[in-house]
C-alpha cells in the first residue's frame, strides 16, 4: 500500500527519474539506511541528479514546487538519501545563482553536472558548532597558480561519492570581506577522508570528515558569493534552497513513518486521520513557501524570513507527529526491530541543521516588528 498523501510526490519523482522510486523500494528499509547503503550509488546512476539544471543545459528543469515534492518522495523512502541529495541540490542551486550574476564557467559546470551525472558536496561551515552560517570553513593562501585551501568539513554528506566539493573562503578586498566559493574535484591532491558519523540514524548519507591540505584551486574555479557583511543574492538563494529542501526531506521522512502506521492499520481511523491532518499541514506549508519564493523574487530576504518561520513550525510539528506515529506502531515494532526507533530519530534531524531556532530569535523578532530581515550575525 501507499500513503495517498505521497502520491503527488511519488508521481513527480517518477516523472523526473523513471523507475527510481521502485529501485529504492526494492531495497530492504534497514539496508537503505545502513552505513554501506547503495542508495547514493543508485541516485548517481538513476536518480534526479540534474533536477534543478535547465533543460537547455541537459538537466531536468524542475521548478521549485516540483523539487519540494521530489525531496518529500526521497525522504519517505530513505531519509539518508534525502538529506545527502539536499546538499547536492542546494549546491547546484547556488551555482545557478552565480550564473545569473553573469558567470560563464559556472554554466559549463552545471551542464557537466547534468550530462555526466556529477555529485556535488558542500564544504561550507554549516555543520560547525558555533560557526556563523556565512563563515568560511577554509583557510586560503593566494599563489600565482591559484588558491591553496586548507581546512576540514565534518560532517560532509556524499563524502565518499562526491565528484566535486564546494568550499568557501574569505578574500580581503577594499570593499570588505568577500565570501568566495571554490569548486574542487574530489580527486584533487591534498584531499583526504576520515570516518566521522557515529549514529546509526541517517548513516547512509556518507557523512564523513573531508580534509583539505593545501589543495590548489585554479582561479577559473573560484567565484564570488558577495560580501560577508551583506547577504547577497547568491547566498540568499543558496540558503532558501537549503532550508526548503532540507525541510521537505524531513517531512518526507515523517511521511514514511506515518505510511508504516497506515499500512499496518494501527490504532483507530480517528488516530490515523489526526496524523494525516498534521502531515498534510506540513506539506501544504512547504508548498506555500515554494510559491512565496517563486512569486516574490525581488523580496528574497523577507521570503527567507517567512521560510524560516515555516521551517521552525514544521520542526515542532514533526516532533509531535513522529512521537505519535512511533507510539502507534507499538511495542512489538520497538522490540523486534530498530526501524521504528530509527524512523522516529530521523524525523528529529531537522533541528540540528542551521540556523538553529534559538540563534535566529532576535533576527526574526526584528522582522516581525520592522518588516525587514537580515541573517547577518546569525550563528548555527
From TrEMBL:
Q: What's in the keyword line of the UniProt record?
A: FAD, Flavoprotein, Oxidoreductase
Q: What GO terms are given for molecular function? A: acyl-CoA dehydrogenase activity; flavin adenine dinucleotide binding
Q: InterPro entries under this entry?
A: Acyl-CoA_Oxase/DH_mid-dom_sf, AcylCoA_DH/ox_N_sf, AcylCoA_DH/oxidase_NM_dom_sf
Which branch of life, at top level? Bacteria
**SUPFAM superfamilies, A to Z:** Acyl-CoA dehydrogenase NM domain-like
Name of this chain's protein: Acyl-CoA dehydrogenase
State the organism of origin. Answer: Pseudomonas synxantha
Amino acid at each position: 500500500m501507499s500513503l495517498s498523501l505521497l502520491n503527488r510526490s511519488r508521481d513527480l519523482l517518477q516523472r523526473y527519474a523513471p523507475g527510481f522510486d521502485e529501485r529504492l523500494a526494492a531495497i530492504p528499509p534497514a539496508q537503505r539506511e545502513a552505513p554501506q547503503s547503495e542508495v547514493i550509488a543508485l541516485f548517481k546512476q538513476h536518480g534526479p541528479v540534474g533536477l534543478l539544471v535547465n533543460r537547455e543545459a541537459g538537466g531536468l528543469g524542475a521548478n521549485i514546487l516540483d523539487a519540494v515534492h521530489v525531496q518529500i518522495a526521497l525522504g519517505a523512502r530513505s531519509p539518508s538519501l534525502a538529506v545527502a541529495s539536499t546538499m547536492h541540490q542546494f549546491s547546484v542551486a547556488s551555482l545557478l545563482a552565480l550564473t545569473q550574476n553573469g558567470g560563464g564557467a559556472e554554466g559549463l559546470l552545471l551542464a557537466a553536472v547534468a550530462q555526466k551525472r556529477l555529485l556535488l558536496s558542500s564544504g561550507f561551515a554549516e555543520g560547525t558548532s558555533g560557526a556563523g552560517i556565512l563563515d568560511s570553513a577554509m583557510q586560503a593562501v593566494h599563489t600565482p597558480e591559484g588558491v591553496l585551501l586548507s581546512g576540514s568539513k565534518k560532517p560532509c554528506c556524499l563524502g565518499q561519492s562526491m565528484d566535486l566539493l564546494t568550499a568557501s573562503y574569505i578574500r580581503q578586498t577594499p570593499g570588505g570581506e568577500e565570501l568566495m566559493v571554490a569548486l574542487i574535484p574530489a580527486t584533487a591532491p591534498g584531499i583526504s577522508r576520515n570516518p566521522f558519523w557515529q549514529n546509526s540514524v541517517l548513516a547512509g548519507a556518507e557523512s564523513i570528515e573531508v580534509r583539505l591540505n593545501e589543495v590548489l584551486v585554479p582561479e577559473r574555479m573560484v567565484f564570488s558569493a558577495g560580501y560577508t557583511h551583506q547577504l547577497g543574492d547568491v547566498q540568499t538563494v543558496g540558503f532558501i534552497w537549503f532550508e526548503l529542501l532540507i525541510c521537505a526531506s524531513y517531512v518526507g521522512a515523517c511521511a514514511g513513518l506515518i505510511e508504516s502506521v497506515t499500512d499496518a492499520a494501527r490504532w483507530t481511523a480517528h488516530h490515523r486521520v489526526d496524523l494525516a491532518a498534521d502531515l498534510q499541514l506540513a506539506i501544504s506549508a512547504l508548498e506555500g513557501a515554494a510559491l512565496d519564493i517563486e512569486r516574490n523574487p525581488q523580496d528574497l530576504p523577507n521570503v527567507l524570513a517567512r521560510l524560516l518561520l515555516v521551517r521552525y513550525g514544521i520542526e515542532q510539528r514533526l516532533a509531535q507527529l513522529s512521537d505519535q506515529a512511533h507510539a502507534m506502531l507499538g511495542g512489538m515494532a520497538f522490540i523486534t526491530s530498530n526501524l521504528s526507533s530509527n524512523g522516529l530519530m530521523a524525523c528529529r534531524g531537522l533541528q540540528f541543521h542551521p540556523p538553529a531556532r534559538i540563534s535566529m530569535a532576535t533576527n526574526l523578532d526584528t522582522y516581525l516588528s520592522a518588516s525587514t530581515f537580515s541573517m547577518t550575525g546569525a550563528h548555527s
